[in-house]
Amino acid sequence: MPNRHTHLDEGGPTDDLSTSKEVREILPWLKLSAELDPENIKTYVVTAYWLRKRLNQVPEAEQVLRGGLRSNPNDPQLLFELGRIYFEDYTNSTVARNIWEAGLRSWTRQAPSLPQSDRLKMTNENFDDRFMFEQLQTYLAQLEEKAGNRDAAIARWELARLASPTPDDIQKHIDELKQKIGGNISQ
Fold it and tell me: Does residue 11 fall inside a structural domain?
């Protein structure tokens, strides 16, 4: 019987995630899951998350995502997560940008018969697609801001706003950027 309430993402029964036996025990099951169902994108994303964020094993997380891309070439979600590794962990904005732009191209090819605006309409059926588009555009917008490319950042933010469940918040940020460059603020 457990003597206290714990969660794996909070360290399991110990307070040190890097030595928690229970946390490490989940990884073989996640790897087995990927072998049994190599087209299940969530398995690769979850495995990479545990390796990267909870066990600080970034190269291993990268390898998991690359393995997912071998089974699911050009998957936007896997490319997004791989780009995050390069941006957040390796601090390589150039590679991250290239990966995220490849993710957007792949996202666009997934539903070529639909106009982009239809794919971004707020429906439950396309929530995951819309969310991925927003995430890719948001991270690319942040890269542009960081590089001082405000016009390019605004263009990215405007695209992210189309898919966002909170477009007003993004519009406020767009307006702030436009004010900084002395542009016209429009709604």
Answer: no
pLDDT, tens digit, for every residue of 36-51? 888 899 999 999 999 9
In the chain, how many domains are there? 2
Quickly count: other Cβ atoms within 10 Å of residue 42's Cβ.
Answer: 11
The residue out of 92, 126, 142 marking a domain boundary is 92
Closest to 43 measured CA to CA, from 61, 59, 31: 31
Structural domain that includes position 185: 111-187
Q: 144 and 80, same structural domain?
A: no
CATH code of the domain in which 71 resides: 1.25.40.10
Tell if the pTM clears 0.85, that is, is over it.
no
Same-domain pairing of 79 and 144: no
Cβ neighbour number for residue 12 with a 10 Å cutoff: 19
- Model confidence pLDDT, tens digit, residues 105-144: 999 888 655 555 565 664 555 677 889 999 999 999 999 9
